[in-house]
Write a structure and sequence with these properties.
This protein has helices at residues 2-11, 36-48, and strands at residues 16-19, 54-57. By secondary structure, the protein is of the alpha+beta class. The protein has one domain (2-62). Helix 2 (36-48) links the parallel strand 1 (16-19) and strand 2.
Amino acid sequence: MQRLRKIQRKHNSLLCIGLDTDINKIPEFLFEYGDPVYEFNRRIIDATKDLVCAYKINLAFYE
């Protein structure tokens, strides 16, 4: 919890992004990569890492 609070203060944010990736909504160009789900999520994380304090993975999307 201390680590989370530290990141919340650093980013001045309580925002948590859910990585609930629906394979049917991934842009076509990402299918050129070996793992389009990984590539999609990596790009979301790279674009938001300075704005959020946490990411939540919904395991049901990955079963």
